[in-house]
Amino acid sequence: MKLAILLRRVVITITSLSVAFTLIALLVNLAVFDEDLKPEVTRIQQPAQTLPTEGNAYFAIWGMGATDDQDIVKTGVRLIKRLRQNREASGLDALETEDYVEILGAINLDEEWMANYYCNSRTQYGCLAKIRADLHAAPITGQRLLLMLDRHKYVLQIPTFRSLGESSFVSPVPPFGTMMKLSQLRLASLYDSGSPAEFLAQLAVDIRFWRMLLEQGSGLLDKMVGVAGIWTDVQYLSEYLTARELSQDETQIAMSLLKPLTRNELNIGDAFEAEQRTLFQVLTTTYGKESLRAFGPLVTNWLIQTNATQNSYYQNITRPMLRLSALSEAEFTAQERTREQQNKGIRRPYGRDAMTANWPTGLYNLSGKILLAKMLGYPENYIARVHDVNSMIDLVRFQLSLQSKDVAEDLQSPEDFPASPDTAGLLSSGALARKGLTFEPEGGWLQFDCLDKSSLCQIKLYSEKTN
């Protein structure tokens, strides 16, 4: 009997504590207890301006997958319109298969040819050779691929890029991969069939487009696609230089393509503001709240203080990234090294301590804390990636200056690099000065350690060592 009474008391106690915990959590998370938004957050959340459709590559890229008889800009506009209709009508932040079929005319028209070609220049060397080999195995003959190359040529000429400023964690994205692959195919085909002048002319058109995405794109994806496109172009030029001699005029053209990134291109702070707006959409819109399900059952609207969550994200992620984005490469590197030293060599996500300090005892904004903790990552990597591609531009510029002097194959170490004004200037100032270049004469490899550890920062100065 005593055991039964004890068990009953234990059950009652546990049940009472659970009910009390739930009631307190619900009470402290009533909207009346939410914070006021920081003025900076209010500024960032201002509605995006109406997107121009004419002369805007964003819509053209969305429509590239349409059937042969359709205008890709008009198709892209219809897709975005349908996405907004889905959000308003059903809270669905998606384009269904039926939507794509109705508007594009079909789906997956490009899967077959795209599967034949793949290489990621940011993480592996030799993509020009790889895509050339793929082209030899699967030549450009199909009508669909020829049509896509025509569409690619048209999109590259479009003067501006303005993307949609409304997104959640599950929003569909335009087919950037198709554009990137078509750029690779066009350049690789020109290696074999075109003159150096034709190759450089196409490279000029291509790199202008990707730099436009980097500077004008508002989202983090836009900018990283721009970085990837620039990286590919720079690596392709580097590979081209190992096998082809350029005339003096062609060398000057190539040099003009290797301009360092501007301050506006280097500063990707507006992308982190766009990420802040995404969080706003997730917390305040019907279609955004649907995407919270992916973060688990404890992330529920009942236990989120909307303003407090946004303020915390701004304070611990957006504001630090805005500050880091505005730094020079040297200042950014020094800042990250100092932070690593403070963390005793352990790499920690930004905001980890601040966002999880009250877990699990703090019931105020409980779901908001869990959400932010699960969102934490290493956004500084994206800033590092922009500085890395800028250094790659300088590295290939250095390669071009060496080639023009026909001395590359006689080099044994960085100390052997000729002390001409061009080469000495690149090694003593700018992005390469602090890189600690290493050179392997056997393979002709010239390289440095990327700030973003997932990337590969190396080139070959010649195809193979000759004796």
What series of H and E elements makes up the topology? HHHHHHHHHHHHHHHHHHHHHEEE
Largest sheet: 3 strands, antiparallel
Question: How many E-type strands?
Answer: 3
Through-space gap between termini: 96 Å
Structural class comes to mainly alpha
| Low-pLDDT segments | 419-424
What is the strand arrangement across the widest sheet?
1-2-3
- Helical amount among residues, as a percent range? 55-70%
Mean of residue pLDDT?
A: 86
The proportion of strand residues reads: under 5%
Shape: globular
Gyration radius over CA:
26 Å
> Based on the structure, what is the oligomeric state of the protein chains?
single chain
Helical element count? 21
Q: How are the SSEs ordered, and which strands pair?
A:
Layout: H1 2-28, H2 39-44, H3 57-62, H4 72-90, H5 97-104, H6 111-114, H7 127-137, H8 143-156, H9 176-193, H10 196-216, H11 220-243, H12 248-257, H13 263-266, H14 269-284, H15 286-290, H16 306-325, H17 329-342, H18 352-356, H19 366-375, H20 380-403, H21 421-428, E1 438-440, E2 445-447, E3 458-460
Antiparallel strand pairs: 1-2, 2-3
Helix pairs in contact: 4-5, 7-9, 9-10, 9-11, 10-11, 10-12, 11-14, 11-20, 14-16, 20-21
